[in-house]
From TrEMBL:
The chain crosses the membrane at residues 6-24, 36-52, 64-87, 99-119, 144-166, 197-218. This is AraC family transcriptional regulator. InterPro entries: Homeodomain-like_sf, HTH_AraC, Tscrpt_reg_AraC-type_HTH. It holds the Pfam family HTH_18. SUPFAM superfamilies: Homeodomain-like. Residues 292-398 form the HTH araC/xylS-type domain. The lineage of its organism: Bacteria, Pseudomonadati, Pseudomonadota, Alphaproteobacteria, Rhodospirillales. The keyword Plastid does not apply. Keywords: DNA-binding, Membrane, Transcription, Transcription regulation, Transmembrane, Transmembrane helix. The keyword Transferase does not apply.
Amino acid sequence: MDTSEIVLLLIAAVGLAQAAFLMLLLRHEGKRAFRANRWLLVFSLTACASFVEDISDVFLSPLYILYLAIIFVPVTFAFLPSIYLYFCEIADRPVRYPWGHFVILVPVAILTAVAVHIMRTRILPGDIGGEIDFELDTDIESHLPVAVILLTIIIALYVQLFGYMVKIWRVAIGYLRQASEQLGADQRVLRRWVTELLTGISLIFLIFTATTIVDIFITDSEWLTTLVQGAFALVFFRMCHVIAHNPALFVQAEWDGAQEMAMDEDARDFTATGSRQTRFAPRNLVDADEISRICKRLDAIRTRSDLLFDPLISLPKLANAVGATSNQLSYVLNQHLGKSFFDFINEVRTGEASRLLVNEPDRTILDIATSVGFNSKSTFNLAFKKITGRTPSVYRSETMSQRNTAP
């Protein structure tokens, strides 16, 4: 075992540990986070397969490595779709048939199986102990079918790589623009997370591209492969660090039908076919009845659900829950409640935080802040002081003192 193999084993072991830790963190984010985090779980599982492949390359015989290519090669095509689907979810642009993005794994697996069969039966008959070294530049004429299959897979991988990277950047930039306009979250934290994830993924696949080209057409690139896997491990480490310190970044809205029906059972009726239909479909005009209905829905949402504590709550999401357009909701908030969207959200969150600060004195301020939807202590302090005139710590100490001295 040479030095590069030892280093690769260490990186693979660290990478597997980091991936496992990341998956545990994602699972502990809860049910509300799962819709988006499931795609990071797929990404983590795909990376695990890559690390396992590195370990198998060191310990298994070439023949078994050849057979395992039927699994490991197709799995490579799951990396970018999983990241793309994650950004679509957090940007509130879910894909209708998300698993369709992974259909490509099937033909790739079939092509890989055909190539493995040809190599085993025609190119390497009876060779189960020696090195399997198929170079595209030297073997393309003598083993044309295998070379064509491998070249097809490589081209498909790079088409997917560049296509998805463009789509990922577009969705991510749109998400950051949406966040700056509609979200009450800490923009600095959100921007840092998105930028770091995009930069890390982009660098990994740029290195991967260079490594593959060198490995195929020039010479062996064991150290470059080690560099790619090391980059994966670093990305996982950073992802774990950000998630552990900013858990609320990854909590999505959860608004189920049971809650909605319980809050406004009168607002629903049935069509002649028996299907359920809402009577408050969005309208352009906001009359007195509509204003009253929107206010009642807002009050119901405030008192009967935790939707407003979702750190990624936005004006369109809240308008959808209310059953109005964004313009209608904004008009009612501004003209009839005298508040902006952010003021309304922060007022509700601050009210709940005030109760928790007094009733649960053992909880940290940061814990309470994230539980009501703030992404950082600094953002929480600013919003809390703007509404109450005191910082959370001062409010807690003064209120507790008054309670203790009361007769």
